[in-house]
Give the backbone structure.
Amino acid sequence: MPGVERNVFILGVVSFFTDISSEAVYPLVPIFLTKSLGAPLAVVGAIEGVAEGTASIVRWLSGWLSDRLGRRKSFVVLGYGMAAVAKPLLALAFHWPVVLFARFVDRFGKGVRTAPRDALVAQWTERGERGRAFGFHRAVDTAGAVLGPLGALALLAVLGENFRLIFLLAFIPAVLGMVLLRLVAERTPRPEPSAAVEPKGGGGLGAAYYGFFAVSLVFALGNSSDAFLILRSRNLGLGVSEAVLAYVAYNTSYSLLAMPAGIVSDRLGRRNVIGLGFAVFAAVYLGFAAIDAGAYVWLLFPVYGVYMALTEGVGRALVADLVPSERRGSALGLYQGGVGLMALLSSIMAGLLWDHVGPSAPFFLGGSTAALALVLLLILLPRGSTGSP
């Protein structure tokens, strides 16, 4: 594929198969816990909180270690391997603590692989094509997130609620991804300056990096779990299948637009594209707060995919641009881990606001923090401060 280096292409396909596996399992785990194992809802929430919190913390540690050791691929292999092993562990679970352990292993693996993998993508890509490369990776990764839930629905229709067999079948695409990883070459970080023009500081990451990190934390404060979007859809009258299909429409939009958004960021500047993404997010969340009929959900979910395309891969490319190559693992890990922890706090706040204020409240918060983040982005990263328009 033009502009996408061979190793980056293979890493994208690995993520595609892994996401098919993970997303086929993810929506079934809460049902399996409550219906098959008899776990209370509090346990379901605790398991997901522990899982996501673990992934956020481990991202920074693995990124830092990959910088210290000068190696990326071994962390990527370990992370994807743990995600694969988690599927048969779920199939063997007859008590909820085993599910907790399986989800812990899965998310620990995600934390181990993410920052080193993204650093490897950056190392195999020239600066002027990083938006394209990260956009491609996000596109194929999200395509797996589209096919995974659809595959799970198909398996449920054929096998009934035989969750254990479905978990075992989900192991197959994960193994295919692991086999493909053998084709990815390691690349030692090459000395390369950052694109930022600000004076260096803070351990070599620079003022521009920390400015973008601060903006991202403010934005994440209102960016609660996508589960609240599905709950809001149900609250507005959509059935279970309709809500899942609306969510699939969001992932489809995200997958189709991620690479074009990355290419645009290579040409027009990453800050500009991310700022547009924040504006789209604010509009979508305020829309979810204001609408009073489920029909509007079919419009808002695809537009939400536009926001993801404009920010997710482009944000990673911007972080890679802002820091020296030998510090990319640490920078990406800190960025992803911090945003993940803030998103966990946001989800807790969203649940409290939903229960004590109303279903619209979390979305008013998200729209407001996104608007504030946009203003801060323009102030803290003025034009030219990131080495691009």
